[in-house]
Structures are given as structure tokens and as C-alpha cells.
Write a structure and sequence with these properties.
This protein is an alpha/beta fold. It has helices at 8-13, 15-44, 50-99, 102-106, 110-120, 122-152, 154-201, 203-209, 212-264, 270-311, 370-377, 397-400, 421-426, 437-444, 467-475, 497-510, 523-526, 551-557, and strands at residues 331-341, 344-355, 358-363, 385-390, 393-395, 407-410, 485-489, 515-519, 531-536, 539-544.
Length: 561
């Protein structure tokens, strides 16, 4: 973890609540410490009257009530702080994932990402709600109790403290092993989450191929690794607690034997011995709590490392505002651009230029690098080498990735959200001057029949709609304020020929002044565009398509054009 990474900046924003909580915890501890002293006072009084006894009991009840009130309000305030901080970190983590290096993000498994955002952030809640107050209260209680024990009897106090040394040695031994096993458990949990996601995503294939037994055999192996790590963690935790209990029992026996000897020889009052044993037994609980808190703190640090790895990998990112390098796009040019995934070279010295008021179709065999080229043009992937020019001006990657401010894109893996149809449209809407934006956009993509269902949930990635409806719902996003660069990847593959042609007419009419780039195997798309970009062997060539019976130009200018 980076030195500057942590939750302290967030805690500073909640300092008022924390300042109120601190004295509440301190008051609670000292009230708890005072209870055995009041009991000692009662036991040491030879002739206690009923009214005095009643007042002492009333005092004990009042202290218990006050402890409950202080404890309630401190827990309430800490829960409020932890919920706010956890929510903020989860939101900022997602924001940084959205703004970060997509290539780096792709290396993570989906299950691991979900685990980090949801489960690892629980460590923040645990740290604030449990570890911080438990550590503080346990420390204060331990120090106070030790001081009181030494004021009662030095010899018994020394014996008690020596037992604490055994506690410390045991803790040191078990702590290292617990952290090691915890790391393994987190790793196996990520694998289990990812495997579960894989299996649920592939239900259709399992049913069609009747491979339930094979899939479950694979899943059980992943499960076994996870539950073995869980069992190992539980086993060593239980073993450590039994060792602590053994030390506590041994200390009690030793103190009772020595204490009774002191009482019989007149060196110690019986009431003091009783209170001494009460303090000693109550002392071991905060000691164990303190050790557990350190264990939990170390585990939480492991969780925080994982979450802040996402959150802080993009500290220097600019906010999603208009680029200072360019404020419009007339042309984009790649010169000798190469892109590799590790040792695998996908694109090799690509050079091409695309311009405004022109349309292009990107074609090539499956796996030739079309999607990679689109991701470079959209600023998602950073070229391994080569130069990128915008409006004939050389720009670096940090400048170029702001191209998203001037582009619309619908890709094959573009996502529909499990929200209502109208919410899926409104999320991407930037038009303010249209009275009924839902009806307007559905009309643009010929989905008027869904207007009556606009408030219905569409399901995860649009599972409640047909494939063609999904494609057209995605396309509503590009019917916004006019933008300079529009990229559409296989956006009509699920449509019939007539609907595809009407939709292409609508797209070309709306974005006739943009750089319009299609990636498609559909013949109709190729008949509409001005230029065709062919990818083959990792290189690109561009050819004019204007004279080859271009349907859009025939419609606009006549067949002789």
C-alpha cells in the first residue's frame, strides 16, 4: 500500500462525530473499571446498613445504565461515520475504474472486482465500528486495571502481569499464521466468486450440452480450496482461543492458591482477593480483545490494500471535462501505430486518417484486430508505439483519451442496465429542449411499441427484450446533441433488412456532419459508407467507396453522383 493510502482523509471529514465519540468511549471504560471497586467497598465494610447498601446498589445500577447510554451513542455515531466512508470509497473506486487504464482493468477477474468493491470495503466498516473503539477501550481498561491491581497487592499483580507475557508470546505466534491463511482465503474467495459467475453465465450451454456433472466437478474443486482455507482459519483461531483460555485458567489457579495463603496468614483481606480475581478475569477479556483487534486490523489492512489498489491507481487523472488540447474534432490520424498484448502483436504499424463529414466501414476477418483499433481510436487502449494526431496536431495518450468528450460509441459489449427502459435512455441523455425525450428517441430507432412499457425493468443487460430491441435501445444513446465522432460496432446484426435500412437512414441523416465509423459484416452497411478500411495481417488500408453505387449518396444526390 502506498504511504499516502488510507482512510484518514475520510476520517478527517467526520471529525466532529469522532470527537464526540472519543469521550463517550473513555467514560464507558472508566465506569466499567469502577464497578469492582464499588463491590470491594461493599465487601470491606463490616457493618453496612440497609440504606447504605441500597445506595451502593443504586449507584451500580446507575453506572450500568450510563454505560449502556454511552455505548449506544458511541456505536450509533461510529456506524454513521463508517457507512458514509464506505459509501464514498465504493463510489470513488467505481469512478476511478471508469476513468482508469482499461487494459489494466481487463486483467482482473470479474468476481475479484466485485469482491473488492463490496466485500473488501466491509473492512472499513469493521475497522471503524469494531477495531478502533475496541482497541481504545481494551487498552484503557488494561492499563487502568493493571494500575489498580498494583495498588491492591504487588506480588499478585506481578504474577498477573507475567501471565500477560505468556499471552503476548502466544499472540505473536498465532498472528503470523492467521494473516498468512487469511490472505489465502481471500484469494480462494475471489476464485470462487469468479467461478460462480462463470457457471451462472453459462447455464444455457450446460443445459444444451448436458454437462452438469462436468461443470459441478470443476466447481466442487474450487469450492474445496475455498472451504479448506476457511476451515484452516477457523481451526487456528479456535486453537489460539484454547491456548489463551488455558493460560487464563492457570493464572486463576495460581492466584487463588497464593491469595488464600495470604488471607490465612493475614497478609491480605478476603474482600481484596475477591475483587482482585474479578479484576484479573475481567482483565483477560480486554487483553484477548486487544489481540483480536490487532489480528483484525492486519486483516483489514490486507482488504484495504486491495480496494485502494483500484481506488488510487489513477490519482493523477483529470476529471471528465472538455479537453484543453482540442475543443472539436475535424480529423484523427494514426501514424505507424502498433499495439501488443504482452508478446502478442495485434496491430503492426497502422497508418490511417479519418475526417469529418465522411463515413467509414471497418472490415476484416474475425480476430484481425478491428475491435482493438476501435478501442485505440476511442482512447480506451493506449498504443504500444506510434503517433496520434487530432486536427493535424500531435497529441499524447493522456490528451487523446479525452476524445470521449467528443464521441459517441456503441460497441459489441456495450451494456444495458437492469433499470427501466426510460432510465436506460435518460442515463445517456444530454438533450434538454425535447419535450418527451423517451418518445423522441424510441421513434428515432423505430421502437415506438415499447413506449407503453417504458417504466418496466429491462433485466440484466436487457434480457427481457429481444436481441433486435436491445440493439436499437443501445442506439438511442447516439441520438443526442450532435458529436464529432460516432463509432458503431455491429449495431444492426440482429435486425431484418428493412429495419436495418431504415435505421441506417436515420443514423446517417442525424450524424451527416460527423466522422461516422462502422465496424460491420453487414452488406447493407458497406453500401452506405464513403470509405472502407480493411484490416489484414495487423495492417490497414483505406479505399474510397463513393463511386460504388453508394445508396446514401444516391438518395441524397441522385444516381449520377
Amino acid at each position: 500500500m502506498k504511504k499516502n493510502v488510507g482512510i484518514m482523509p475520510y476520517l478527517r471529514h467526520e471529525k466532529t462525530k469522532l470527537i464526540i465519540t472519543l469521550p463517550l468511549i473513555i467514560i464507558t471504560v472508566f465506569l466499567e473499571v469502577s464497578i469492582p471497586l464499588i463491590i470491594k467497598d461493599i465487601l470491606e465494610t463490616d457493618d453496612i446498613q440497609g440504606s447504605l447498601l441500597f445506595s451502593k446498589l443504586l449507584l451500580l445500577i446507575s453506572i450500568a445504565l450510563l454505560i449502556g447510554v454511552c455505548s449506544y451513542f458511541s456505536k450509533y455515531l461510529l456506524a454513521s461515520v463508517s457507512n458514509k466512508i464506505t459509501k464514498d470509497i465504493q463510489t470513488e473506486t467505481l469512478l476511478n475504474i471508469y476513468k482508469g487504464d482499461y487494459v489494466k482493468f481487463e486483467k482482473y477477474k470479474k468476481g475479484e472486482v466485485i469482491n473488492r468493491i463490496l466485500d473488501d470495503t466491509k473492512a472499513i466498516s469493521q475497522m471503524i465500528n469494531e477495531i478502533f473503539p475496541l482497541t481504545l477501550s481494551s487498552f484503557l481498561y488494561t492499563i487502568s486495571s493493571i494500575i489498580i491491581l498494583f495498588t491492591m497487592d504487588t506480588i499478585l499483580a506481578v504474577i498477573s502481569v507475567s501471565m500477560l507475557v505468556l499471552y503476548l508470546i502466544s499472540f505473536s505466534y498465532f498472528n503470523k499464521r492467521i494473516i498468512k491463511i487469511f490472505r489465502q482465503r481471500v484469494k480462494e474467495n475471489d476464485n470462487l466468486m469468479d467461478s460462480t459467475n462463470d457457471i451462472i453465465s453459462g447455464v444455457k450451454d450446460v443445459k444444451l450440452w448436458k454437462i452438469e456433472k462436468n461443470i459441478l466437478n470443476f466447481y466442487e474443486k474450487v469450492q474445496l480450496k475455498y472451504f479448506n482455507s476457511v476451515f484452516s482459519l477457523v481451526k487456528i483461531k479456535n486453537l489460539s482461543k484454547e491456548i489463551y483460555s488455558l493460560i487464563k485458567t492457570f493464572a486463576n489457579i495460581l492466584l487463588i492458591v497464593i491469595g488464600f495463603y495470604f488471607v490465612t496468614t493475614g497478609l491480605l483481606n478476603f474482600g481484596i482477593l475477591v475483587v482482585f480475581i474479578l479484576y484479573l478475569n475481567s482483565l483477560y477479556t480486554p487483553i484477548i480483545d486487544l489481540f483480536d483487534a490487532v489480528n483484525d486490523y492486519n486483516k483489514c489492512l490486507e482488504n484495504l490494500k486491495r480496494i485502494f489498489e483500484f481506488k488510487d491507481q489513477n490519482d493523477n487523472l483529470n476529471s471528465n471535462t472538455k479537453s484543453k488540447t482540442f475543443s472539436y474534432i475535424n480529423s484523427i490520424e494514426l501514424k505507424d501505430v502498433t499495439f501488443s498484448f504482452g508478446e502478442n502483436k495485434i496491430l503492426n504499424n497502422i497508418s490511417l486518417r479519418i475526417e469529418k463529414n465522411m463515413s467509414y466501414a471497418l472490415v476484416g476477418k474475425t480476430g484481425c484486430g478491428k475491435s482493438t483499433l476501435l478501442n485505440i481510436l476511442l482512447g480506451i487502449y493506449k498504443p504500444t508505439s506510434g503517433e496520434v494526431y487530432v486536427n493535424d496536431k500531435l497529441v499524447n495518450y493522456n490528451e487523446y483519451k479525452d476524445i470521449c468528450n467528443f464521441s459517441y460509441s456503441i460497441l459489441q459489449d456495450s451494456h444495458l442496465y437492469n433499470l427501466s427502459l426510460e432510465d436506460n435512455i435518460n442515463i445517456f441523455n444530454n438533450i434538454d429542449n425535447v419535450k418527451n425525450i423517451i418518445s423522441y428517441k424510441l421513434n428515432k430507432v423505430f421502437l415506438n411499441e415499447l413506449y407503453s412499457r417504458r417504466s418496466d425493468l429491462i433485466g440484466i443487460n436487457g434480457k427481457n427484450l429481444s436481441g433486435g430491441q436491445n440493439q436499437r435501445l443501445l442506439l438511442t444513446r447516439i441520438f443526442n446533441k450532435s458529436n464529432d465522432f460516432v463509432v458503431l460496432d455491429e449495431v444492426t446484426s440482429a435486425l431484418d433488412g428493412e429495419t436495418e435500412m431504415k435505421l441506417l437512414d436515420s443514423i446517417f441523416e442525424y450524424h451527416n456532419n460527423s466522422i461516422l465509423l462502422f465496424c460491420s459484416h453487414q452488406t447493407q452497411v458497406l453500401e452506405y459508407v464513403d470509405n472502407i478500411i480493411r484490416i489484414e495481417g495487423g495492417t490497414a488500408s483505406i479505399e474510397s467507396n463513393i463511386s460504388n453505387g453508394n445508396k446514401r449518396r444516391e438518395k441524397k444526390y441522385g444516381k449520377n453522383v
